[in-house]
């Protein structure tokens, strides 16, 4: 079929809508599929023991032969972190800018997946032809990581502009402005649909320039007499460069700690995105030979992660750095929703150890990488799309963004607020939601991918709330009890102080088993059920708790 006969394309978000994280968009034309981004989400508090959340890729696995490539907007984990899990299933090329692919390379190496044939470098301002129907143009935008791009996906049906994470910074640290001119040209040429960042759709005005942070950091470095410890996102290379510049101006050496920070600094330096003067970077072991006013430390832990370097310093169990009076600690990041309590605990502990802590809510040490309302309106007015789809936000963010779109003249019927899996079909004269595909979340726990579901999470939640009681009974081949029952408690009550309760519970189990013996009940499943029922109702009646009860029956 020739291009002039193609009149329909479909867009399916598998993540990144009605949520912040696990960004993944599928674009389909005829028998070809293009994937935009493949990100993770970090687990919320109710996902006990879970390491990562990735999109459900069932639809992609079913259609793997149709997939022509993956294009990446930038190098944040919520856009590239699920790539290893996707590439284990699908062998296709991955297109991105230099820093983005540098970070992807490190991620794939950790999973033993690195094949340079996967990775296709594209410069901002250039295009990549992917399959027969997708010509993808990379358009520079500003964000909290270098080399971020919006994508213009040129197809026989029309042009899609995908601007997932962006802001318009008029004074960027790296002097690389967003390509507003090209966005305006696309608007003049005609854009079928715009997918745009909704993270800050509730914030009025404009997002401040990254250079504002640099000015604040300069002041902090010039005023501090002792050691300076700065925590930030490891991917915010421009921010790290400003820390290094301020340290250099104050004749301080710089050490780096935290695995992701060390890796990203190394990658960014090798690729030319960080300028570190010779001899300025030192190992942690070398700090003991320097005066406090000669030391600057760049670390992970801005989100209060339990095992991150700054968090361990705040607890006093970092192997090489002990916080002391006179230290200045700068937390140069905002707390991701859900992390506020962890960040607050870390800051409190740092204060208790004598540090002077400077953090976002009381200073200008962080600015967002996402556009606020006036910039979102500017993107809409530059691109002038026929259809508008808010992305990268919870439902309330997308709702606010849709309101902004109506204010600048997008008809309400041309705005789509989606859930993961919704199928949007666009043609030259129509756009509508036509159905849905399998979508949702897959939980990663250690090396297990998708093997933890609602039942396991329910059990973990129950264990965390009320603990567990293990009832051990030994029976002979005739079903008669020869030992036990013995009750073992973990996370339920302290046995030494609850002897009476445990003794009463034991008698309750004995009574239930005696009844089974009298009725010649020897089936293990029935015995276990009787133990659970008898003990569960007794415990709840006594202390109104519902511990997990695990009967263990052994035969001799």
UniProtKB/TrEMBL annotation:
This is Ribonuclease J. Transmembrane segments: none annotated. Homodimer, may be a subunit of the RNA degradosome. Its EC number is 3.1.-.-. The gene is rnj. Pfam families: Lactamase_B (PF00753), RMMBL (PF07521), RNase_J_b_CASP (PF22505), RNase_J_C (PF17770). An RNase that has 5'-3' exonuclease and possibly endonuclease activity. Involved in maturation of rRNA and in some organisms also mRNA maturation and/or decay. It comes from Acetohalobium arabaticum (strain ATCC 49924 / DSM 5501 / Z-7288). It is an enzyme of class 3 (hydrolase). GO terms for biological process: rRNA processing. Zn(2+) 1 binds at residues 74, 76, 143, 165, 392. Residues 21-217 form the Metallo-beta-lactamase domain. Keywords: Calcium, Cytoplasm, Endonuclease, Exonuclease, Hydrolase, Metal-binding, Nuclease, RNA-binding, rRNA processing, Zinc. GO terms for cellular component: cytoplasm.
């Amino acid at each position: 079929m020739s291009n002039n006969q193609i009149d329909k394309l479909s867009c399916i978000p598998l993540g990144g809508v009605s949520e912040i994280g696990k960004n993944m968009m599928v674009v389909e034309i005829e028998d070809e599929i293009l994937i935009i981004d493949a990100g993770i989400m970090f687990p919320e508090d109710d996902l006990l023991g879970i390491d990562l959340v990735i999109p459900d890729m069932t639809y992609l696995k079913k259609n793997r032969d149709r997939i022509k490539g993956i294009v990446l907007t930038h190098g944040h984990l919520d856009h590239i972190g699920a790539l290893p899990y996707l590439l284990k299933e699908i062998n296709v090329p991955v297109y991105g800018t230099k820093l983005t692919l540098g970070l992807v390379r490190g991620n794939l190496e950790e999973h033993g997946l690195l094949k340079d044939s996967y990775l296709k470098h594209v410069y901002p301002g250039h295009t990549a032809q992917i399959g027969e129907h997708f010509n993808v143009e990379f358009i520079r935008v500003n964000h909290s990581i270098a080399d971020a791009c919006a994508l213009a996906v040129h197809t026989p049906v029309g042009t899609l502009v995908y601007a997932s994470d962006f802001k318009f910074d008029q004074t960027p640290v790296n002097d690389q402005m967003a390509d507003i001119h090209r966005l305006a040209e696309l608007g003049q040429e005609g854009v079928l649909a715009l997918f745009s960042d909704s993270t800050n759709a509730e914030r009025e005005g404009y997002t401040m320039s990254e250079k504002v942070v640099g000015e604040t950091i300069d002041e902090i470095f010039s005023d501090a007499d002792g050691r300076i410890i700065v925590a930030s996102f490891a991917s915010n290379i421009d921010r790290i460069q400003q820390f290094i510049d301020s340290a250099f101006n104050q004749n301080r050496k710089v050490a780096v700690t935290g695995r992701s920070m060390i890796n990203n600094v190394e990658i960014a330096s090798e690729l030319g995105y960080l300028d570190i003067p010779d001899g300025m970077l030192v190992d942690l072991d070398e700090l003991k030979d320097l005066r406090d006013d000669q030391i600057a430390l760049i670390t992970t832990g801005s989100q209060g992660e339990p095992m991150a370097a700054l968090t361990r310093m705040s607890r006093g169990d970092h192997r090489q750095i002990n916080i002391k009076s006179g230290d200045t600690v700068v937390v140069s990041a905002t707390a991701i929703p859900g992390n506020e309590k962890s960040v607050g605990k870390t800051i409190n502990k740092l204060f208790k150890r004598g540090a002077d802590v400077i953090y976002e809510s009381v200073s200008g040490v962080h600015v967002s990488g996402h556009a606020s309302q006036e910039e979102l309106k500017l993107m809409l007015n530059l691109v002038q799309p026929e259809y508008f789809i808010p992305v990268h936000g919870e439902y309330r963010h997308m709702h606010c963004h849709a309101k902004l779109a109506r204010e600048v003249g997008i008809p309400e019927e041309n705005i789509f607020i989606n859930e993961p899996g919704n199928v949007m079909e666009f043609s030259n004269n129509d756009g509508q939601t036509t159905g849905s595909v399998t979508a949702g979340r897959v939980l990663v726990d250690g090396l297990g991918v998708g093997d933890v579901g609602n039942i396991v999470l329910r059990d973990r939640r129950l264990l965390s709330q009320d603990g567990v009681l293990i009832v051990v009974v030994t029976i002979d081949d005739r079903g008669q009890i020869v030992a036990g029952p013995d009750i073992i408690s973990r996370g339920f009550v302290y046995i030494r102080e609850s002897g009476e309760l445990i003794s009463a519970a034991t008698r309750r189990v004995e009574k239930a088993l005696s009844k089974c013996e009298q009725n010649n009940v020897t089936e293990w499943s029935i015995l276990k059920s009787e133990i659970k029922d008898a003990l569960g109702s007794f415990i709840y009646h006594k202390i109104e708790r519902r511990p997990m009860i695990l009967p263990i029956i052994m035969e001799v």
